[in-house]
Structure formats: structure tokens, C-alpha cells
Design brief:
By secondary structure, the protein is mainly β. The protein is 4% helix and 58% strand. The protein is globular, with a radius of gyration of 23 Å.
Length: 606
């Protein structure tokens, strides 16, 4: 406690030194200068010191990513686990993840998780209508509530910006992988409308890796004077087939294991509203998510979440801001297969946060949240930060914050191993670093971090119990350079000391990316990922070969409204495996070798 009290200082506002992308951040008080129509709405609290990584939808498309998590794999401190090319892919942030249970995952600020297991279902989040993806690293539950132990991921959807716009894209790749997307929208006066349909299928790169996914999106916004409203609706249906895990020593299939398949139907609906009154903004949200999941082991479940949030914010336009609010959600899970049953729990919270500059060189931030649920659990979640800027190009920051996760329904009730007396998992995070911009075209960041988790829920003696303790430490470095008007480079390195908990957590990861565009006529890009000190067992046992992949993409505009593109993944045809859990199986899964794809995109309207 002495360390926590003495260092109680954190997460400053994202400053010009780290503002690499245009637009609002995950933890911004309210988007400004984002959409020309002014219809975007966010109920997120103000930011603290934590750096926010932002990847735009355009960048993801130009790089040829097929899912959100593909793009996250190049961020410092992020490692993506998967069992297949398509389908489920879960991000670990600084060693924390657990299939999204220990990371806050949101769409436009709305929590997006499966209540039965408390996990995210990443394949339900394709790229059909993404404006950008924002990532905060480290425990941030003071801002984002239960689950934000490792960090937070927010997927911001896009709406129409022009009187009439849209595009059609079709591409074909190795192993009969096919993709078709149609999207369009319109703006008329104070109203805007956007819709997207996305379909992906593949025969799979080895036996039992076929995939089919369909995604449908509708979005409507309206502005009424100083007020604005937005209604979003999303539905995903799909089936993923996963192969048998392989032996880490021999590469042979695990004896006695069988291929698995997972059929998902998930959707979400939310209504947000905001009203501006001078320096104040009032906002609110109503939402529901729902799902039906069928697995090859006979499991069949349904779930639904209802939620609401209210907030009031203040920003004086000179660097000081504050926000307070309240949140409520009701989570229901039903087991349809086997012995049917239904379970429910409610979660609620109040929070406050603020930011204040002291002169030109010192910035202080703080946040606090009280969260509780109907299992008689409650916890206080503080966060604080300080940033010092000796001059405009350089800033030093330090932070401390607390993360938390409430037990999920399956851990509390569903199985003989469940335990209704479980307590919340908690974690403290500490970080110190610097951000430096020696020139307008160069940005550097370096940081050291530590997180210690307590009461982690693990199976012991045939029952879930609060018995897990973790201590993760690490360092990261990041470099971004705009070499010329058309040429950009980025690179990162992350070192993670996971102590004895080394399973599936690489000790070294490095990424690099290079992109060149010539007057919007043609462009090429390439990226690479290296992961080492990788194990399939704790205490650095069962070593796994290093991972090194190189991907490339090229595009050419045949006309102002027609683009031809081609991608090549794993150019070196490296054979590698990734350790993950896919609900029914845990182990090392074989990833594809060299693959190619190409297609055509037609843009209309404008």
C-alpha cells in the first residue's frame, strides 16, 4: 500500500506529442473536429495519462487486414492469439487477455461481450464499417469498468459523410477464400444513414479450418439544434471450424483430440444522445446485445445484456475538463443444451474523472469509480497521473491505476466447478515513460510498466477459486517517421517478463511497417512481426519456435472510382504455431504458410 500511496499519480491527457491520428480518442470527453455533420456521440469519460494507440479504418484497408485483431497485432505490447486465419482472434495486452475477459472491449463505447463467459467474440467485429480502432494499455477500470485489467479496445464505427456515397468490394484468395462487401450511406440536412453488408468464406488452409461469416450493419443519426442522436444496429452470423492442436515438441496432432466447430449469431442495438450547453455536455445511452452460440461438443446457449449510461461533462477549452456519470447493465445467460437453466446478474457503477493543467509544464489527472453487482461484490477503482512537459517537444509521464473484473456467469453458476462466492479479480498498474517529437515528422515513445494481479479466478481442486496472483513487468519502445510526403515508417519493440506465467506470452515482440503512396494513384505497404522467448508451458517450459512473418499489399487506382489491389501474407512461407484456447480445446495451432489474394473496389457517389 505504501508504494500505491506514494506513487499515486497517472495517466495524463493525450497530448500533441502522441496525437498521431486525427479525430477523437477512446477516452476523449467528446469528439470534436471528427465528423463534419457533428452527429458522432461518445459517452466515454475524459482521458487520463495513458497513451492511446489509434489505427484508422483506411489504414487497415490499405494494409489488407481482414479483422480488427489483425491490425492490433502490430501495436507495441499487443499479441494476438488465434486458432485459425479467420474466426476468433483474441488480443493480449501486456500479457493480459484470457479471450478478452481481462480487456474491456467496446463498440462506439458500448460494452461488447458474451455474458455467459464474459469474453469477447472477436469474429463478430469485421471491417465493414470501421472508422478507427483505439487501444489503451494497462489497467483502466476507473474509466471503463469491469474487465479493463489489461487495457481497453474501442471500435468506432463510421457513418455517412456525403450527400450520397458507397462502395462495392470483391476479392478472391488462396484456399478459395472469398470476400464481398457492399456499403453505402447518405446525408440529408440534419439526418444521416449508413448501411453495410459483409460476407467472408474460405475452404481453409488445412483440414478443418473452413469459415463462413456474414455481417450486417445499420446506422442512423439526427441532429436537433444543440442535441444529437444516433441509433446503431448490428448482426453477425457465422460458423468457424478449428483444427486439432499440435504437439509442441513434434508438431503432430494431439492424440485423441477432434476438430471443432462453433456457430455464432450475435447482435447489438444501441441508442445514444447528447446535448451541448456552452462548456457542458450531457449524454446518455441505452443498449442491448444478444447471442445464440452452438458448439461441436453439444453446447448451446443464449445470452442477452440490457444496459444504460448517463453522463455530464465540462470542458473549458483551455485544458481543464471533468466528467461524472452512472452505468447499469443486466446480464442474462441461458443453457439450452443438456440440463437447461437460466442465470442473471446486474452490474452498476458511478464514476468521476477530471484533468487540470498547472501552468504550461504540469498536467494532473484523476478518476475514481465505484462498481458493484448483485452477488454483493463492490470495489473502488482509482486512477491518477501526472505529466511534465519541460518543452513542447518532450513530455514525461507517470501513472498508477487499478483494474477489476467481476466473475462471469459460467464461473458463478453454470457448472459443478462454478462458485457463487467468487470475488472480483483486481490488478494494479504502474507506468512511467516519455514521449518525444524531435521534428514534426518524427515521434518516439518509451515506457516501463508493471502490473500485479490478485484474486484471479482459476480452477483449483475441482472448483473455481480466487487463488491466482500475477506480476508482469515490461518495457516498450515505439518510433514513427514520416520520411517523405508519401513514405511512412513505424516500428515497435516490447519486452515482457511474465514471471512463472509464461504460457502463450512471448517475452520479446517486435513489429515494423513501411507504406508508400504516390499521389493517390498507387501504393505499396509491408509489415512484419517477430515474437521470441515463446513457450507453451509455465515456468519457461515447452519452448516454441520464434515467429517471424512478413506481409505485403499493393493497390492501383485504374480510375477515380475503381481500385485494383493484391495482398501476400507470410511471404517467407514460415511454418509457425500460436498457443491459444478456442473454448473446446487448448494448445498450439498451426498457422497458414504463404497466401495471396486480390480484388477490385468500386466507389460510387461523392
Amino acid at each position: 500500500m505504501k508504494l500505491k500511496t506514494a506513487v499515486f499519480a497517472v495517466l495524463m491527457a493525450a497530448s500533441p506529442a502522441c496525437a498521431q491520428m486525427e479525430g477523437p480518442r477512446l477516452n476523449s470527453l467528446m469528439p470534436s473536429g471528427y465528423r463534419a455533420d457533428g452527429l458522432d456521440i461518445s459517452t466515454a469519460p475524459p482521458s487520463l495519462t495513458a497513451p492511446v494507440e489509434v489505427i484508422t479504418g483506411t489504414e487497415m484497408e490499405n494494409a489488407g487486414y481482414s479483422s480488427v485483431t489483425d491490425a492490433l497485432s502490430l501495436l507495441p505490447g499487443v499479441f494476438v492469439r488465434r486458432a485459425n486465419t479467420f474466426g476468433r482472434a483474441d488480443a493480449d495486452i501486456r500479457g493480459w487477455g484470457d479471450n478478452g475477459r481481462r480487456i474491456a472491449v467496446m463498440i462506439d463505447g458500448r460494452p461488447d461481450k458474451m455474458p455467459v463467459y464474459g469474453c469477447s467474440v472477436s469474429q463478430t467485429m469485421p471491417l465493414s464499417n470501421i472508422e478507427r480502432v483505439e487501444v489503451v494499455e494497462g489497467p483502466v477500470s476507473a474509466l471503463y469498468g469491469s474487465g479493463a485489467i489489461g487495457g481497453a479496445i474501442n471500435i468506432v464505427t463510421r457513418g455517412a459523410r456525403k450527400a450520397f456515397e458507397g462502395d462495392v468490394q470483391a476479392d478472391l484468395g488462396s484456399y478459395n477464400t472469398r470476400h464481398l462487401r457492399l456499403r453505402g450511406g447518405a446525408v440529408k440536412g440534419d439526418n444521416d444513414f449508413f448501411a453495410a453488408v459483409d460476407r467472408r468464406t474460405s475452404d481453409g488452409y488445412i483440414a478443418d479450418t473452413a469459415y463462413e461469416g456474414n455481417d450486417y450493419t445499420l446506422e442512423y443519426g439526427r441532429k436537433l439544434g444543440d442535441s444529437s442522436f444516433r441509433l446503431r444496429n448490428k448482426l453477425y452470423t457465422g460458423t468457424e471450424h478449428d483444427p486439432v492442436p499440435v504437439n509442441p515438441a513434434t508438431g503432430a496432432k494431439t492424440p485423441g483430440a477432434s476438430p471443432t466447430w462453433f456457430d455464432y449469431r450475435r447482435g447489438g442495438l444501441d441508442l445514444t444522445g447528447a446535448h451541448d450547453a456552452g462548456d457542458f455536455r450531457y449524454d446518455g445511452r441505452l443498449f442491448t446485445t444478444y447471442g445464440r452460440h452452438s458448439f461441436s461438443d453439444g453446447w448451446l446457449s443464449e445470452d442477452q445484456t440490457f444496459g444504460a449510461a448517463l453522463g455530464a461533462g465540462w470542458n473549458n477549452g483551455r485544458g481543464a475538463s471533468a466528467k461524472a456519470g452512472a452505468e447499469y447493465s443486466s446480464l442474462t445467460g441461458k443453457r439450452v443444451s443438456g440440463t437447461p437453466g437460466a442465470w442473471n446478474k446486474n452490474e452498476y457503477a458511478v464514476f468521476a474523472s477530471g484533468r487540470s493543467p498547472f501552468g504550461k509544464f504540469l498536467f494532473l489527472d484523476g478518476a475514481v469509480r465505484w462498481a458493484g453487482d448483485t452477488t454483493d461484490n463492490s470495489v473502488w477503482l482509482p486512477a491518477a497521473g501526472v505529466t511534465v512537459k519541460p518543452w513542447n517537444q518532450l513530455e514525461f509521464y507517470s501513472s498508477i491505476s487499478k483494474g477489476m473484473r467481476f466473475p462471469a456467469l459460467n464461473e458463478l453458476y453454470l457448472y459443478p466447478i462454478s462458485n457463487p462466492n467468487l470475488k472480483p479479480e483486481t490488478a494494479w498498474g504502474y507506468e512511467g515513460g516519455l514521449r518525444y517529437r524531435p521534428a514534426e515528422t518524427v515521434f518516439l515513445r518509451g515506457a516501463a510498466y508493471m502490473s500485479e494481479g490478485h484474486n484471479l479466478i482459476m480452477a483449483q481442486s475441482g472448483r473455481f477459486s480466487n487463488v491466482g496472483d500475477f506480476l508482469f513487468r515490461g518495457m516498450l519502445a515505439e518510433l514513427k517517421i514520416k520520411v517523405t510526403d508519401g513514405l511512412n515508417f513505424n516500428g515497435s519493440y516490447n519486452y515482457l517478463d511474465a514471471g512463472s506465467q509464461t504460457t502463450g506470452r512471448p517475452g520479446h515482440t517486435a513489429t515494423g511497417g513501411l507504406a508508400y503512396a504516390s499521389d493517390e494513384v498507387w501504393g505499396v505497404s509491408a509489415d512484419c512481426l517477430y515474437a521470441a522467448k515463446y513457450y507453451a508451458g509455465d515456468n519457461s517450459t515447452l519452448p516454441v519456435n520464434d515467429i517471424f512473418t512478413v506481409n505485403a499489399r499493393a493497390w492501383y487506382n485504374l480510375a477515380a472510382d475503381v481500385q485494383l489491389f493484391a495482398s501476400a501474407n507470410n511471404l517467407l512461407d514460415r511454418r509457425y504455431v500460436i498457443y491459444t484456447t478456442n473454448t473446446s480445446a487448448t494448445g498450439l495451432f498451426t498457422m497458414p504458410g504463404f497466401t495471396v489474394s486480390g480484388g477490385l473496389k468500386y466507389t460510387f457517389g461523392g
